[in-house]
Structure formats: structure tokens, C-alpha cells
Design goal:
38% strand, four-stranded antiparallel β-sheet, single chain
Length: 447
Amino acid sequence: MKPSPHFLWCRINLLELFKERGVIPLLFLCLLPGWGLSQNLVLNPGFEEEDPNRPIFYWDRGAKYWTVSTPGRSYQYYSDSAIDPGYRPPHLHGAFQYPRTGRAFVNVLMLGFNCGNRNHECRSEVTGELKDTLQKDMLYHVRMHVNLKVISNSSNAISDVGLQFYKEHIFLRDTYLIDLNSLPHIANPPDNYLDDTAGWMTVSGLHRAEGWEKVFIISNFAKAGMTNHLPILLVPQIYYHFDDISVQTLQLGPDTSICHGDQIVLRHYFNFDDAVILWSDGSTGDSLVVDSPGTYWCNVTIDGHTFTDSIVVDGSGYFSFQLPQDTVLCHGSNLNITLPDGPDYMWQDGQTEPDYVISQSGRYSVTATQGSCKASGEVFVRFEAEPQNILPDSILLCTGQSVTLNVGHADGSLLWDNGSTGKERQVSTGGTYSVTITNACGLPMKP
């Protein structure tokens, strides 16, 4: 796993819900792999964005980030906003085709004869850009979708469709002929004639990056007179439609660490319906949620090629602890708390030991730190005394008088001898009256 600068620190503060009930509020830190590590690196891959500086019509280069490197040549831009209705899919001049996805695609001359005043063949190209330079020694999957354009109810297929990477934009000196004297980095097999005029075909391959690739050209890279085409040439010019160009790799992100309570979401970003996914836990979804240390991997199989990447989630700072629930104790007793060894602790009174003794009522808190992980918690403890005598030994009443026995200051639940449970009782006749007070520390009775 090569380290990558694309990562994102995140900080999650959990709400202190129901603190009075003893729920321990924790502060978690997490490091998540950066979004976009394995997303498509091609700018405007489906030709959806138009160049705002140019109107959209026949010879204009209307797709944003897409240009040509051959002087005097161009690609045809088909979009639902084209001025000429013949360039609004699906009804095109001499052809009928929907975009593979979205609202636009391009058309490129792959092979022509007697172009201009020349007697030899010609072809054009389309040049695209990448969001970032490819990383050296990284293996990339490249895919483009192509469709053979029908001309005058006739067509003829070739197999020489390819993609070549470059460090920067180049300018080809020959107006009509692309002859780069090198094989393309991604090449359609020579015996695979791209002859589907209705559906979209796939040209794909793998590229081991040299670390300078930033732009690319899609074209017919065969030398003059060497293009592989079907034996019978039915038309003097062969055009192909292109849509949904992708260059991407599998990167789960740099090795990272995790704290107790964190969740790290790993994603593969291969947005292909035909991709076969397998994660280290046996799942096959687009992502894997990780909540503990370990080594995790993902396999992505696409177009017969399998990409594998792994990530180590370090647990050197991983720990957990739990304080008791809020509680009530009797005077004279203690609450002894023992936390796990390892983290550095800081109690509210400055103590730093994992063992802590509570003997007085109050709210106690502790913060624990280990490596990059941090957590905190608190507990409220209340000490109660045993129930005390709360009624006088005797009361003298005169005839016609009454007295209210009030035990509102009692600490506990009440039960009078007549079954009532209120804090007051009205008495107007002589006799013996008693109330039972119950709390955690005792159950006395006083007449």
C-alpha cells in the first residue's frame, strides 16, 4: 500500500445524551481515507459539460476539456443542446444513436481515403485530460465505450482503436495523418472488429503508469496503409462514436489508525455494473465499514482484470473503558473504580491513576488518552444516610384540636400505618401513629 496525500482528518463529537442517567459521553477521533482516491480521473468523461466559450455546432470543439491535437481537424460533438438538429441525439445526420449515458457523446473519423487533395488515408482524434498525473508504478484500468457510426445505410468496421498517454498536450504536424511511430498504451485486439452500429462496445486495458501521464489521445494509431479493417470497404470514411471514458485504479487509501467507537468506510469506486467485488470479509458491496484494527483488502475484477489493494488499520491507540452508571451509596461506603492499564488518565481533581476511590457525593469525570485516541466519561454519585427518626415521641392534643404530621424532609419512600404514602397526615384523635421510611441504606419504623 503506497502512502497517499489524499486523506481527510475528521473529528466526531458525540452528544452527551442522558448524562444524568450515566451514559458515558465519548470524544472520538478518526482518520478516514480521502474521498476520490479511486474515482474516474478523466475530466468530463461522458462529454456532458459543454465549453461555455464556444457555441455547439458541427466543427466546434464543444465538450469542455476535450480538444484535438491535429491542426485543421476536429471531432463532431453530439449534444441535446446543439444548434443544428442533426447533431442532437438520437437523430443525427445519416445516423441514429443515443448516448450511452447522459446527453452527449463525440464522433471521430477513424479512417478516411482521398482526404482533401491527398491520395492517401487520413484520420482524426480527440484529446482528453486527467484530473491528476498518474502515480508512478500504479496499475490503472482504462475503458472507453465505442459505437460504429452508420453512413448512408452502410458501414465498415476497423479494429485499430486505441488510447495513448502523454505528459502534456502535443501538436501533430500532419494535418491528415496521425503517425506517432509507437503503439498505443491501450489497444483494441487486432482481430476484434468493432462492428456494432446499435449498441456500445468496450475497449479496455491496463496501464502501468510511469508517473508523467496527464493527457491522452484517442484515435487510430496504425501506420499508413496498415489499418485492420473488414475485407470489403463499403464507405470511404469510417467514424466511431465515443462515450464514458474512464481511467481509474483501486486505492483503499493510506494505512491509518482507528480508535474505539470509530468507523472507517472503505470504498473501491469502480462504478461499473459488470465489476465483480470481493472484500476481505466476504461481502460484495461498494463499501466496507471497519470498526476495529486489522488488515483489510478488496478485489475488483473488471474486463477480465483483477485489481487488489489492502489497507492496514493500526490499533496501537485502540482502547475502551466504562465508568459505572450514576448511583446512590450509603454513607460510610466507597465506590472503587478500576480502569484498564495503558492509557494516560486525567481525573477532574488532577489525579492520574487508573484506580480511583469516591467517598463523597458529586460528579466525577476522567479523560483517557492513548496515541491519537481519546475518550472521556463521567459518573454522578450520591451518598445517603440511614433513615432517621422523623416523628416526635408524643404530642399532646386538647379536645377539638388536630395536628399535621409532616415528614416531607424524609429521604426515601413512605408508608403510613393506614396505608397512605403522602408526606403529610392530619391527626385529630389520640392513638399511636407510625410511618415506615425506606431507602438504600435502611428500613426503620418510628411511632
